[in-house]
Amino acid sequence: MLTAIVGINWGDEGKGRMVDLLSEEYDIIVRYQGGNNAGHTVVNEKGKFILNLLPSGILREATVNVMGNGMVIDIEHLANEIERLKEKGIVISSKNLKISDKAIICLPYHRQQDVLEEERLADKKFGSTKRGIAPVYSDKYSKKGIRIGDLLDYNILSEKLKGIIEWKNLTIEKGYGAEPIMFEETLDWLEKYGNIVRPYITDVSKYLDDSKKEGKKIMFEAQLGALRDIDFGIYPYTSSSQTISSYATCGAGIPGTKLDCVIGIMKAYSTCVGEGPFTVEMFGDEAEELRKAGAEYGAATGRPRRVGAFDIPASRYGIKVQGADEIALTKLDVLSYMDKIPVCVAYEIDGKETLDFPTGNELNKAKPVIKYLPGFKQDISKIRKFEDLPKEAKEYIKYIEEATEAPIKYISVGPERDAYIEVN
Ligand code: GDP
Q: Whose CA is nearest to atom 25 of ligand 1?
């Protein structure tokens, strides 16, 4: 069984929590794209964990976790993340953590370049998380990346780094006018954190291929959502990687393999981090109330998220590009304070209503067409059966299900592992 679990919206849909829940049935969890620019928050009986790089299955002892070739890995951040989890009693060894030799290392100069570029852009900035993600992906495709596998031979690594730093300083020193990157310092950094990461380096493609043949159940875990995909998202307000399910096996290391199932994680309302068009955005007290109710502050950065009504055109698009077979609707409990629940049922562009999500500059012109559904006005966080939900909550779910044409299989009503409803 090969399943991808992906975001339908702008990210932060609560994927981490759903992966933590659903991973119980899986032998292997794979992260296949992105870096530490987003975070998953998982609350379970061991405590609350923020995972930026490690796959969510790391919190279960019997689960093997794989970091695929599609990822960009800041090894300092990873070393700290491993350390923090170990302090809380989580066992991490080469048995339950395997890192692709082909994954690309995100270095301090990538972070620095990110900051320099955001400063240069000033008020035209994209709202980067300044974790170096765009520069490191750019270097990967310029064939100037350093791979995790390069940590296995420090002589080769040293040679490679020398050439790359010479090239990078053309940008950092000569371009931005910043202090040049120092070779020795960078090599020391690679050695220091490389020593921590090295035991986990694996030929992940072979491992996954063998596991697949043995009939192991594999889950591919995405970061961010469909609308942040580099090709199919709201470009250039996207991430620098492919957040879509079609890339899962590729970024994991087993291209050519077909998925059996795609689970889309979709939030009961909308949130968005960073800049760019966000048609359903709420402002003022209305926004503040929703933000507070949903604790919508970035897991990686603590930034307040932009919030809005559930967006049907955007979610329909997200479901389509993800090829989602079933949906987990998250954070429904957050809406319990509302007297009436706003839903964006269509976009109005140049006076015409449409259900189609525009992927080009037309999106800037889109205005939300809002309809209100009755609120359910009660705490639903303890409810575990669909039939026990208040009538208005059932109506809201059914409305969304019909409008998005995707079956809602799970409803999450709280951050805790058991706070969900399976719809039969
Ligand atoms: P991810 O990157 O998609 O995992 O999203 P986040 O890390 O931003 O997770 C969403 C946040 O909402 C986390 O703090 C979760 O613990 C929390 N959360 C997840 N599902 C629910 C839910 O159904 N209800 C509530 N109230 N909180 C939830």
A: 414
